[in-house]
Amino acid sequence: MDIRLINIGFGNIVFANRVIAIVSPESAPIKRIITDARDSKQLIDATYGRRTRAVIITDSGHVILSAIQPETVANRFMTSKDAHSED
User: Fold this and answer.
1) Residue 84 and residue 76 in contact, taking contact as beta carbons nearer than 8 Å
2) pLDDT tens, 20-78?
């Protein structure tokens, strides 16, 4: 099993194999997902009080808020994937 960790900002790291989606928090359906996760105690706020720019959804149903752009998280995800494929 290949373990890949992705930095989502401010020293917070996510296990890459558990990530299902990285989305922007702007739309109403995503805001509803965040509210539902907060109500069910499955929301992880990794923004350190900053504005939420990316919402990461995991296969366990947890929703993680990040203060960095979704594109940046995705690029880190792809860079990590490329580095491991060269090994």
Assistant:
1) no
2) 999 999 999 999 999 999 999 999 999 999 999 999 999 999 999 999 999 999 998 88
pTM of the model: 0.89
- State the greatest distance between any 2 C-alpha atoms of the chain, in Å, as a whole number: 42
Q: 17 CB contacts (<8 Å, ≥6 apart)?
A: 1, 2, 3, 4
The total of other beta-carbon atoms located within 10 Å of residue 19's CB is: 19
* Centroid of chain to Cα 9: 10
Instruction: Collect all residues with Cβ–Cβ distance below 8 Å to 29 and sequence separation of at least 6.
Output: none
